[in-house]
Amino acid sequence: MILTLESTCDETAAAVVTDDLQVLGSVVASQDDLHRRFSGVVPEIAARAHLERIVPVIDEALRKAHVKLEDIDAIAVANTPGLAGSLLVGLVAAKALCLATGKPLVAVNHLHAHIYACRMAAGKNVFPCVGLIVSGGHTSLYHCASATDFHYLGGTIDDAAGEAFDKVASMLGLAYPGGPAISQAAEQGNSRAFQFPRALGGESGGLNFSFSGVKTAVRYAICGPQQANFTAVHLTPQQIADLAASFQEAVVDSLIAKTRLALEQTMDNTLCVGGGVAANRRLRQRLAELAEAMKIELHIAPPDMCTDNAVMGAIAFERLLAGRVECLDLEAVPGLVRQ
Ligand code: KG4
Ligand code: ZN
User: Fold this and answer.
1) Same domain, yes or no: 107 and 145
2) Do 223 and 82 belong to one domain?
């Protein structure tokens, strides 16, 4: 049995999982309410909220699982990538628990864990595969030879897909977090109403993505290229829906094009998709069409496993089995390590 901790961004989470991947207890404390008024995650606020919540969240996960800390065999923690202050809280909590109990410490790569959510939901091996992670902080493609052997293929060179959803939602005056709000508004919209750019299209950008241009294009569509007095109050609900649908389609088109390219290049015949944006209905639909057309096996994390949680930290079992246990000087690594 492992206790896994997750505090990479703005969710404080803990879970107890068995080695046959049964989830005994899982708790996710969201900070959406704290960041809403800023329309984005404020790192300092996130770190301080983690600090207040981490111990109660761990207690609650153990209580739900009906186990005591002594029953746990190892403590796992996501130590990369993420916000520096946020990562530190989970990491220091995990180290303290290891020091107090003598249990081994296992490091979890948060992006690899997002792909492992697919393995858990599938209930069977999904490797080797192409892994697409689409979250608020990252948009990355990997060739995943196994659960402990990930090769970075490409990723965003500027904004992450989820970040673009959040920022465009804010421009349109929609609720935070922006992904679900855009998706909902887009249901009533015409995705061909506006022609937004699909950056790095074709094979020119390799397997990299860029979403800052589409974000700017939406801004110009709302108000023209003026710097000051930016507002969307003059838009009708139908215009908002059309902008949301056209933006969403541009992002989804880019994600699908690069994922197709990654599948062609690696010749993998399985695709696993995780991260918050993988909850997007239109993306899920287009991924299903891609899988059908390419005759590949598709695993998308179930919606509650797309956004950040500690359950997917069960990837730690794979590292434990490979003998990869950490010393207590393990560091938090905020930036993306390309592996
Ligand atoms: O994976 P996640 O919980 O956190 C990070 O690791 O970043 O992803 C959060 C992101 C946010 O940007 C949120 O707007 C986006 O996922 N998201 C969505 C949807 N649900 C959440 N984006 C598009 N459509 C959705 N339905
Ligand atoms: Zn995440």
Assistant:
1) no
2) no
Which protein residues are within 6 Å of ligand 1, measured from CB?
A: 9, 135-137, 162, 165-166, 177-180, 183, 275-277, 279-280, 307-308
Contact by Cβ (8 Å): 190, 176: no
Atom of ligand 1 nearest to the CA of 281: 26
* Per-residue pLDDT tens digits for 16-50: 999 999 999 999 999 999 999 888 899 999 999 99
Same domain, 73 and 156: no
Summarize pLDDT for 189-239 with one digit per residue, the tens.
999 999 999 999 866 789 999 999 999 999 999 987 776 667 777 899 999
Q: Whole-structure pTM over 0.85, yes or no?
A: yes
Range of the domain at 7: 2-114+306-321
Q: Helix crossing, 43-65 with 84-101: angle to 10°?
A: 40
Q: 266-289, pLDDT tens digit by residue?
A: 999 999 999 999 999 999 999 999
Mutational test site, ligand 1, from 132, 135, 182, max ligand atoms within 8 Å of CB: 135
Specify the residue with its C-alpha closest to ligand 1, atom 3: 307
Asked if residue 276 lies in contact with residue 307, where contact means CB atoms within 8 angstroms, the answer is: yes
Specify if 94 maps to a domain. yes
The pLDDT score that the predictor gives to residue 225 is 75
CA 155 – ligand 1 centroid, Å: 16
Helix axes 237-266, 212-223, angle to 10 degrees: 160
